[in-house]
Amino acid sequence: MDKLIIADREFNSRLLIGTGKFASCELMAKAIVKSDTEIITVALRRVDIENENDDMLSAIDRSKYLLLPNTSGARNAEEAIRLAKLARAATQTNWLKLEVTPDPYYLLPDPVETLKAAKILVKDDFIVMPYINADPILAKKLEDSGTATVMPLASPIGSNQGIKTRAALEIIIEQANVPVIVDAGLGLPSHAADAMEMGADAVLVNTAIATASNPAEMAIAFKLAVEAGRKAYIFGLSTVSKRAIPSSPLTGFLRD
Amino acid sequence: MEVLKINSDDKEFPDGIPHTLTDLLEEIGIKQETVVAEIDGKIIDRKNFAKTQLASNQSIELVRFVGGG
User: Fold this and answer.
1) What is the mean pLDDT of residues A184-195?
2) Cβ–Cβ contact B48 with A under 8 A
3) ipTM of the complex in this document
């Protein structure tokens, strides 16, 4: 597959994996390995000092993956920036998935606060990958402000609804000069393939893999779907017609 | 009684608060290499944990990575 390039770094895989909701660290680690992903997202949360849990990252070979911390839980730009700085201290890298979701019911991203935070973080040398609604104008403004990608949603986080924002995603993809990573709501490998066939540069999947009865096998299914969708996009999608267009010759029939 | 505010909760130290951030993490049983710390809103680099002196009534934030999308 052709390489995905984000902020001058090359990736062979176009499937990003989220690490939430796995039943165990072992299942998560196995799914990550099987997916051939190179970018995994993580969240930052307070340590529960009364109930010390094992460090989830100990199950992952960190040298093989780009750890992409998110700012989930941030309700405004200020909280996102604080989380971003903590994440940078923890990873020693500047990569960041910017997420500002004030509404806990639909977890839809706040466009105003996201753009505000992105501008500040870009100036502070973060490689900003913002999670956004599928809004072409916002995507353009983020790109113009220096974000490394845009990450428009297909449908609400964890909803598995597939691509509900098709028309807007198509415009974002058409206009973007940075990679477009379709994030959130991809519940099936066919949804991921669909996004890639549309020309998305990559997809991010978490829930559909983490909550599968066998996450490692589902990770493989998504990997294959992403590869299939990318190949279809690169090597020429056929046109759609209302009428039948015969595949077999309309001559030489065995009749008078 | 000496107190540190850790992740918004007051924690009392009847025998006095730990001298450094490293001492605190050891006392509460948390592996230093897995956490990020903020004291009174200022991020402390992990390499400076051992030389970061603590004072009573400071507000300490201890965070770490968890699974997330």
Assistant:
1) 97
2) no
3) 0.90
